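Recall the central idea of this unit: under ordinary conditions, the amino acid sequence of a chain determines the structure it adopts. In this exercise we apply that idea directly, starting from the sequence alone.
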Amino acid sequence: MLALIKVFDQVVESGNFSQAGKALNMAPSSVARNIDSLENKLKASLFKRSTRQLMLTEEGQYFYKQSAKILQDSERLLAEMRGEHGAPEGILRISVFESFGNLCLTPLIPEFLERYPKIQVELELDNNVVDLNSENIDVAIRIGIPQDSRLKARHLLTNYTSLVAAPSYIQKQSPIVNPEDLQHHNCLLISHERQRNYWYFRKGTTNKKVLVTGNLISKGGSPLLHAALKGTGVLLLSDWMLKPYLESGQLKELIPNWTPMHSEQGSGEIFAIYKNNQYPRPHIRAFVDFLVEKLKPVK
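Accordingly, the structure predicted from this sequence is:
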């Protein structure tokens, strides 16, 4: 019965049998049969089915609320038992945006595996936003808190950013003394799928919004960083990416008296995102706790 409830819970979270099947590693037809079996046991219809959508019936809504408690209690019980009898174990599927994954996360994975040898890590470096409720991912690392109330976010670090350029670019181009000067420079841009790109600056109580343009736009920061190192243009990027190049002198900070940001609210915070269960599975909790322990702010 508990296995059927888990399938039902995933169908509700995923929105359809196909996506639930992907998350559960089951064929959609098997998912449908499990739901049929559950409905037969309960003597109730849980879903209103149509060719376009799958909606909970009134009985389904009630059962979903009550069954969520059952699943949380079962996870808690299993966590307690595993905690008493051994270390966390299982497959841990992690999705992290490419640049942060390469620079900050992958160097930590060997230590994590040494600490928890019974955990197997599957790592995806991907700048696309994944849906934890429909894809088979346990933890996603992203900038910003998700809007989905079914997900929980644990803060890892503040995403401080700096405005930089290579000495070769600075020597060839006109000086950048104020944020407005950037309108006359080639700026290397993170893609936000907007027609116009703005960078934001703050100094004390003064705020400035500057329209910037450039000949290279990327979803990830790595291509922009390589271009900046070659003297292609001006770059606004996270300090955890820039730190070694600033220390070596390969990049120089520009207008340091201004705080540069990707949005009016700042350049964001980095979070570990996972499903909002009251009692996360032990290997998920171990990994998130490990990240909080190991990751420190740049500034």
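The chain is about 40% helix and 25% strand.
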